[in-house]
Design brief:
Radius of gyration: 22 Å
CATH architecture of the largest domain: 3-Layer(aba) Sandwich
CATH class of the largest domain: Alpha Beta
Number of strands: 23
Largest sheet: 9 strands, antiparallel
Shape: globular
Number of helices: 10
Strand order of the largest sheet: 18-17-16-15-23-22-21-20-19
CATH topology of the largest domain: Beta-lactamase
Number of domains: 2
Structural class: alpha+beta
Distance between the termini: 30 Å
CATH superfamily of the largest domain: DD-peptidase/beta-lactamase superfamily
Length: 438
């Protein structure tokens, strides 16, 4: 499944857990289990007070050649790029070259409602501009180079989804447009600006704006009867929305540099952290128990990523994956639970084997009164397939006793065949579905 350089992420709040001493041996066992069951390939990093406490590489940067990942292997980091773009915008604001309340019409007037859309709205996903990567048409050109003119036309033709500043809704289009605005303001290319204003001052030796596949860069994979290599997005498309290539160590230095005042002022950082309807300006807020982390996540091709920083603890956590067959949210929780002395449970990946006839009791269409989503279940051989409305088909893993899981999304489905019901548990929510009459 191709990830379009955006990737929703939430650290779950849990309470009532007894604190224990840090146990990095247990964390090693956790990752040993993920690696041996082909659940995760990538690099993970945990830092506190600027010091590396834990770092590990799992799996391969090239599966076919069995070339293992290393700590300085580069990954495409997807929408973490938006943090870099936001820093450049605030640097321009601090230098008097741009204002947050400036209108998009001063730069790219052909975009619908550009005279009502401000720079701040673009940064905070409040512009209403349609997200071009959501369109089916995107799949027809994402591997081919696109010019500025082509991208502006695509975004213009996509129109608006809502009135500017009436709500927040994620759109990669916002940050592609900000890329062009920054290039106009400074009369320099986006890669030049990132290098001169961020990577060089912070000495991020392995970070750049991706173009063609570079040196020591990982391939990306999805999992279907083994790791399958993904198609590659042409990096002329994501630009300031998702084109950065980096390492876990470099991203740790970047977010620490951001929060220590090495890139922008304290006042600008406060505006980045200002959350409205779930969106900051180039930042997300992630709750972890009573603590709060700031950062971003990303997904592009088969890559998935997350960087987070807890200011009150001076703790940085980063995961960069080039192949995930598991819920990355669980991985972040395991790392933070280790750091803060909470128990880490080793996941059980034992699956049950069901016959085709046994799967028949689960088949059919199910609907819920709680959410406007229907799910149809079919079988392929002895595998149960979920077909949510408007979403890709999803093979499920049988756990026995009428329980199935989609581990990448952290979703558990519990069937009651006699009642014709299915209960979906995901992200702390419990949603009841009932089989519809066919």
């Amino acid at each position: 499944m191709i990830q379009r350089f955006i990737y929703s992420f939430l650290l779950l709040l849990i309470s009532g857990v007894t604190l224990l001493a840090q146990d990095f041996n247990k964390l090693d066992q956790y990752f040993d289990s993920l690696e041996s069951h082909d659940k995760f390939m990538g690099n993970v990093l945990l830092k506190a007070n600027g010091e590396v406490l834990y770092a590990r590489s799992l799996g391969f940067k090239d599966v076919a050649e069995e070339v293992e990942l290393e700590k300085d292997t580069r990954f495409r980091v997807g929408s973490i790029t938006k943090m870099f773009t936001t820093v450049l915008v605030f640097q321009a604001v601090e230098e008097g070259k741009m204002k947050l309340d400036q209108k998009l019409s001063e730069y790219i007037p052909e975009i619908p409602h550009s005279d009502q859309i401000t720079i701040s709205m673009l940064l905070q996903h409040r512009s209403g501009i349609h997200n071009f990567t959501n369109d089916d048409l995107y799949d027809t050109y994402f591997t081919s180079p696109q010019t500025r003119e082509q991208l502006v036309k695509i975004i213009k033709d996509g129109g608006s989804d809502f009135e500017p500043d009436s709500k927040g809704e994620y759109s990669n289009s916002n940050f592609v447009l900000l890329t062009f605005i920054l290039e106009d303001v400074y009369s320099k290319s986006y890669p030049e600006l990132v290098k001169e204003r961020i990577t060089k001052p912070l000495q991020l030796e392995h970070t750049l704006v991706g173009q063609e596949k570079g040196t020591n860069e990982a391939e990306s994979y999805s999992y279907e009867d083994g790791w399958q290599e993904e198609q590659v997005t042409d990096m002329s498309i994501p630009l300031g929305a998702g084109a950065i290539v980096s390492t876990a160590e470099d991203l740790g230095k970047f977010i620490e540099g951001l929060f220590s005042g090495k890139l922008i002022s304290e006042e600008s950082l406060a505006l980045m952290k200002e959350i409205k309807e779930g969106y900051g300006r180039g930042l997300f807020q992630f709750p972890y128990y009573e603590k709060v982390a700031y950062g971003h996540n990303g997904g592009i091709d088969g890559f998935s990523s997350m960087i987070g920083y807890l200011p009150s603890e001076d703790v940085t956590v980063c995961i960069l994956s080039n192949g995930s067959n598991y819920n990355n949210n669980n991985i972040i929780l395991a790392i933070l639970d280790t750091q803060f002395g909470r128990e880490v449970k080793i996941p059980n990946f034992q699956t049950a084997t069901l016959t085709e006839e046994e799967l028949d009791q689960y088949l059919g269409e199910y609907a819920s009164d709680q959410i406007p989503l229907k799910m149809t279940f079919v079988k392929e051989g002895n595998t149960l397939i979920a077909k949510p409305t408007g979403q890709p088909d999803t093979p499920l893993e049988a756990r026995g006793n009428h329980v199935f899981e989609f581990v990448q999304a952290g979703a558990t489905m519990i069937f009651d065949p006699e009642k014709g019901e299915m209960t979906l548990k995901q992200g702390g929510a419990t949603i009841l579905f009932k089989r519809t009459e066919q």
